[in-house]
Amino acid sequence: MSSQDKNKKKYDPCKHPLIKLAETKGLKAVPLKDTIKLRKLMKECEIDGGEKQISKLYDNDWDRDFKRARRMASWTSTHAMLVSVSFVYYFAGKVLATKPGNGE
């Protein structure tokens, strides 16, 4: 056996630091320059039998995003209502405050 064959057997893409980072801090924590490499590693990991690990990684990321979105939901809708009401009052005021025919 050559040394390359031994290295191939020892290499486990599921234990790569990028995948570990994605597991602990989420997929969005991976730097942009490493996203392509992460996708390749995830494919290799699935091929090597790590389907459950990759599935869990996606599930954890969805859960993390859901919790953050739920926390922001009330603020977002309140802000949207405030902006909508402000626009309606502004344009209603413009229409009602201007008298037609007073263009002298």
Task: Write up this protein.
With 104 residues, the protein is mainly α. It has one domain. Helix content is 74%, strand content 0%. The protein is built from 4 helices and no strands. The longest helix has 47 residues. The chain is rod-shaped and about 85 Å long. The chain starts with a helix and ends in a 7-residue tail after the last helix. The mean pLDDT is 85.
Total strand segments? 0
List the uncertain runs: none
Quick check: average pLDDT?
A: 85
**SSE succession:** HHHH
First-to-last CA distance: 98 Å
Rounded to an integer in angstroms, the radius of gyration calculated over CA atoms is: 27 Å
Overall body shape: rod-shaped
Work out the helicity level: over 70%
Mind describing the biggest β-sheet?
none
Q: What percentage of the residues does DSSP assign to strands (E)? A: under 5%
Provide tags for this entry.
104 residues, 4 helices, mainly alpha, 74% helix
What's the quick description here?
The protein has 104 residues and is mostly helical.
How does the SSE layout of this entry go?
Layout: H1 3-10, H2 17-25, H3 35-47, H4 51-97
Helix pairs in contact: 3-4
